[in-house]
Every structure is written in C-alpha cells, then in structure tokens.
Design a protein that fits this description.
With 292 residues, the chain is mainly alpha-helical. Helix content is 51%, strand content 5%. It comes from Methylomonas lenta.
C-alpha cells in the first residue's frame, strides 16, 4: 500500500465516512491513477478535466456515476493532498431530477405474494412496512424489535445515525411467524455465513426473482418498497415532517419530492377551471370515443 493511499484511508476514517463511501472513493482514485499510469499527486486540474471528459464521452457514464468519481477526487485533492484549488474548479455534474416509479398498494401486495422464501418475503415486507433502506433491513437484529413500544431500532443508518421507526401490528405478527420458522438468534435475517447477516446481493436477487414471477411491468428494486412506503403514507394523510423522521432524511426537501408523486393528494386537488361558471355560448360537442 502506498503512503498516499494509506493517508487517504486515514483521512476518511478520521471523518467517519461510511464504509461504502470509503470503498467507492478508493476504487475511483485507483481507476483515476490507472488511467494516467501516474500517482495522483503528480497530476493537476487539467488531468482531472481530461479524466472527466473521458468518463463522459468515451465511457458514457451517467451523471450519478461521474459524481462519485468527482467526489473522490475532490476529497483526495482538498483533504488528503491539501491543494489550494477552489472546490468549484473540480466541477460536479448536474444530476437530472427523476421521480421514482411507485407501486400501488395492490402491486405491493401482489409482489410480496410472489416471493417464495419466507426469509426473503419477510425482509421485503419489513422494508415496505417500516420504510427501510435495504442496508438497514439486512442489519436488523432480533433485539431491535421492541413489541412494548411497537418500534424497530435502526442502528447506524445512512449518515451513521440511529433512529426508531414504526412497528405495525401486522408486521409484528409476520415477524413472529418468521421467527418461529427460522429461529434467528443475533441477526434477524442471517446470511449463509455463520455470524453474518444476509447480504444485500441476496436480497436484490430475491427481489428480481419475485419481480419476474409477479409479472408486474414497473421496475422493482428493494428501494422501490421504501418509495412506496413514503408515497402511501403521504396519500393516507401523514404529514411530510413525520415521514421525514421515519425515513431518516436529513433534509425536508428530500422528503418533499414525494408530494410530486402522491397522486391522491396532488391529483385530487380541485382545478380552478372546475370553479369557473359555465361559459356562455358553448355548445355540446359529439361524445368522444369510448377509449378517450
């Protein structure tokens, strides 16, 4: 291991960056150095620009992927190498704003019924019922279930933050049925390796298998269940601030995007056109086609 790599690792650990972030940053800096066949401390801003052009034009990566590489290079040069460049001199690509495709309640029910493994079905049920990220669901422990307070404890979720989320009675019943069948001890959803939780990859593969079996045309990932949770909560009348706390969002603006997709909330609003008096002189027109 080179001294520069070790120093960057130490800098990330001092700042308590998430393990996934550390791994991604190291991978990106390694790829950057490999592209030029030189140590990053020998490269300048022009090299960074040339690399971003390569990622954009030659490799055709998405803005999200390029943002990860840019974040890694910003950290390397501003924190580890302490270059006196303005942060904007390493430009961050603008990400397009896309709304998630949301499953209806009926589609969620049909999807969960298509999961053939009790462990996989229960972890996906939990992700939906509590609005969990897949990384949070796989790291639940048996001791995180508090049936007295009807809560689930999320230990060190995104941003290294603990939080409590709702434990519905129906989910508690499902978890008790699952526990009787599997008898987990430490991890609520144990993996194939002794003493380790189920892997993210295993949950994603189970999700893909159930998606194919369900025949639902919408894209479905484990995160789709979190989107569905937030949208369905909003459509049921839960205020945005409460949903923000349940999801563990740092910014209310992140949660507010669900206002754009909660159809029963947005589309049920009366249009001002409906409030206008009947327009004089308007004549009845022929009936539209049946499919209109």
């Amino acid at each position: 291991m080179t001294p520069l790599r070790q120093r960057m690792i130490d800098d990330m650990r001092i700042r308590n960056l998430a393990d996934n972030t550390q791994s991604a940053y190291l991978q990106q800096v390694t790829a950057y150095a490999g592209y030029f066949h030189r140590s990053p401390d020998e490269l300048d801003q022009e090299a960074i620009r040339a690399y971003q052009v390569y990622l954009t034009k030659t490799r055709g990566l998405s803005p999200s992927s390029i943002s990860v590489a840019t974040g890694a290079l910003r950290f390397l040069y501003k924190v580890t190498l302490k270059r006196d460049w303005a942060i904007d001199e390493i430009p961050m690509p603008k990400r397009p704003f896309k709304l998630p495709v949301v499953l209806s309640r009926e589609e969620v029910m049909h999807f969960l019924a298509s999961v053939d493994s009790i462990k996989h079905r229960t972890i996906l049920m939990t992700a939906y019922a509590a609005g969990l990220r897949v990384s949070e669901a796989i790291h639940l422990k048996v001791s995180d279930i508090d049936s007295q307070r009807m809560t689930l404890r999320v230990d060190q979720g995104k941003g290294r933050k603990d939080r409590y989320v709702m434990l519905s009675q129906r989910l508690l019943d499902e978890l008790r049925t699952y526990w009787k069948a599997v008898r987990p001890t430490l991890w609520l959803f144990p993996g194939d390796l002794i003493g380790q939780p189920i892997t993210r990859c295993a949950v994603e593969m189970a999700c893909q298998k159930a998606h194919r079996a369900s025949g639902i045309s919408k894209p479905i990932t484990p995160h789709s269940l979190r989107h569905a949770f937030a949208t369905h909560m909003l459509e049921s009348g839960t205020d945005v601030r409460t949903i923000q706390l349940l999801l563990g969002h740092r910014s209310l603006a992140t949660t507010s995007r669900y206002l754009k997709i909660a159809t029963s909330t947005v589309c049920a609003t009366t249009s001002p056109f409906d409030c206008l008096p009947q327009i004089e002189g308007s004549k009845a027109s022929p009936a539209p086609p049946a499919h209109f």
